[in-house]
Design brief:
Number of helices: 7
Number of strands: 29
Largest sheet: 17 strands, antiparallel
Helix content: 10-25%
Strand content: over 45%
Radius of gyration: 33 Å
Structural class: alpha+beta
Length: 593
């Protein structure tokens, strides 16, 4: 045992020891707080000294690297005459040999004399393409920050590339510092290169999507003048199909005949099939279970086939029963041009609602169109059959519907928006084909806006409107009429509790609807968010808002960010109206809107 203790002591004495409790300080007299903070954030030796298991060699290596890093920080902010000293136990790190580093370092000290901030005496960049916007700070008399020079050079090159000169580059630069006057003369020379046209799309092998389909989807304008935005659009078209895990377009290093430039395409396929499930829970509406199965490349042309199912109202307490729906949709991109796709749709529903039952089937198809990265639309033809029973009686209705919709989406995140807006509008002409159907039209709109207040608060608002025009309430299926109350309209009010009351005490859906919602979302931690909300809804018997009733509800909510979207818990109660009482709660995935 004594010999074992001696051996342990010897091993501990020769083993490398971490530089525990190393003191580390940075001083920069006269430097603005922002500059000092940037220096501290960039100093690797300060970070290394704070690590309990960092060795002396780790701290020494970090200190040697800090000279260039800290000078770079100061250059970026216009300080071109700095002095930087990094000492380890009083010895300059730059003067130490890697072989003479002590076993332990007790103190790291960084001393920075920033000197005077420099200003531009000259700020020239030429030649410039017409319409090039240079950074506002690249001008005589403005702070001579290195980042501003880089931004100006990049803007100059981008200007020429936008004008069709794909090989534009920085050909030379002259940076002359006048230390007595603390000025910098910056001159940048650009080489636009020749005007370039798109050449061929050179496709790397390996994808299960056929080459002719890759070309059609990308829509690269071969033979047209080079345009970096056209290149970005081609990549986005490919990503939008969902068939690829990654998409990479590269410009050829050398130009071909007639200054044409080939574009290389490399894609990595997604897994062909995907399965997903979701669940929502309301204290009165019951549970909703949904799921889907999707094939991303059904016929080898990035076609998508998706089956969706939903069972709603499981265990609901507001009358009615379970609602069942099943749908299948086939999408094929690039059928007329690169931005126009084809869809085919089939769906069946069996709805057992508090005020009606309806079994319906829809089948048809149409075209989709991407107008811009944020604006898209659809137009189609669908045949709809409905077998209905409500307080107006039993009937069958067959309509030929012509749905047309536009969506303008400028949200920063579709599942958890913090900024931007969302607009969706649709008009669906209803042509009577058989049974008790009447001709008319269904009009809907949904507008949402998100406004951040600082880094932790987001104000969110939503307005919904709907109208059935040209047809009476018994000439369209009840599922196309409007009710209010529940998680999708007015939280705190029972599900579909607001409708149109008939003189005999019966109830039917309204021909007009207005829904208003407001939320204040307050971040508590990086993952937890508190929400206060107020919802209001209107349902009327006529096509436009006139006679009818309002009700409202309010409450509090909690959100937990899972990384792919927040889990939502809301608790609410009625505020106005006579359609319900008591407290209700809602659980789901994603924000309420």
């Amino acid at each position: 045992m004594p010999s074992f203790a001696v051996l342990t002591a010897i091993l501990l004495s020769v083993a490398p020891r971490p530089a525990a409790a190393t003191q580390a300080v940075l001083s920069a007299p006269g430097a603005p707080d922002a500059v000092r903070q940037a220096l501290e954030n960039s100093a690797l030796s300060l970070q290394a000294a704070s690590e309990p298991d960092a060795s002396a060699q780790d701290i020494f290596a970090a200190a040697r690297a800090d000279y260039a890093r800290l000078v770079g920080v100061l250059y970026a902010r216009g300080y071109y005459g700095p002095e930087v000293h990094v000492t380890l136990d009083g010895r300059e790190a730059a003067d130490l040999s890697p072989l003479s580093v002590p076993a332990r370092i007790g103190r790291v000290e960084i001393r920075v004399a920033t000197g005077r901030p420099f200003a531009f005496s000259e700020a020239q960049i030429d030649p410039l393409a017409p319409g090039t916007d240079l950074p506002e700070g690249f001008a005589p008399g403005r702070p001579a920050e290195a980042g501003t020079i880089r931004a100006a050079a990049e803007a100059g090159v981008d200007g020429w590339r936008t004008a069709g000169h794909a090989k534009a580059r920085v050909a030379g630069q002259s940076l002359i510092a006048n230390h007595p006057g603390a000025t910098l003369a910056a001159r940048v020379r650009l080489d636009p290169g020749p005007a370039v046209r798109f050449g061929d799309l050179v496709i790397a092998s390996g994808s299960r999507v056929r080459e002719e389909r890759l070309r059609a989807i990308a829509g690269l304008p071969m033979g047209e003048p080079f345009d970096p935005e056209a290149l970005d659009r081609s990549a986005e078209r490919l990503r939008r199909t969902g068939a690829f895990r990654s998409v990479r377009l590269t410009e050829a290093e050398t130009l071909g005949p007639g200054n044409s430039m080939d574009i290389g395409l490399e894609v990595v396929d997604q897994k062909k099939r995907r399965l997903g499930f979701g669940i929502e829970l309301s204290s009165l509406e019951g549970a909703t279970v949904s799921g889907y199965w999707m094939h991303r490349n059904l016929l080898g042309g990035a076609e998508r086939l998706r089956f969706d199912f939903e069972i709603a109202g499981i265990g609901g307490q507001e009358g009615g029963g379970e609602d069942l729906s099943l749908s299948a949709r086939f999408d094929r991109p690039a059928v007329i041009d690169a931005d126009t796709g084809l869809y085919l749709l089939g769906a069946v529903e069996d709805l057992d609602e508090p005020d009606y039952t309806e079994t319906n089937a829809r089948v048809g198809g149409g075209l989709t169109r991407i107008f811009t990265p944020h604006l898209s639309g659809e137009a189609g033809v669908l045949l709809r059959y409905s077998d209905v029973s409500d307080d107006l009686g039993d009937r069958q209705l067959t309509h030929l519907t012509l749905p047309v919709s536009l969506t303008w989406d400028r949200r920063d995140d579709a599942l958890d928006a913090h900024d931007g807006f969302y607009l969706d509008g649709s008009v669906t002409p209803l042509l009577a084909v058989g049974g008790a159907a009447e001709s008319g039209a269904l009009v809907k709109a949904d507008a949402r806006i998100y406004q951040p207040l600082g880094s932790r608060v987001v104000l969110a608002g939503r307005a919904q409107i709907g109208s059935v025009v040209g047809a009476s309430s018994d000439g369209v299926p009840p599922a196309l009429l409007f009710f209010s109350g529940g998680g999708g309209t007015v939280r705190g009010q029972p599900y579909q509790s607001l409708a149109v009351d008939l003189p005999n005490g019966d109830r039917i859906g309204g021909r007009s609807f207005v829904g208003l919602s407001g939320e204040a979302r307050i971040g508590v931690t990086r993952a937890i968010q508190m929400v206060a909300f107020y919802d209001a809804g209107f349902v009327g018997p006529d096509s436009w808002v006139s006679d009818g009733d309002w009700h409202s509800g309010a409450g509090l909510g909690l959100r937990y960010d899972t990384g792919i979207g927040p889990i939502r818990f809301d608790i609410a109660a009625p505020v106005d109206g006579d359609t319900g009482d008591g407290v209700q709660f809602y659980i789901g995935i994603g924000q309420a809107f």
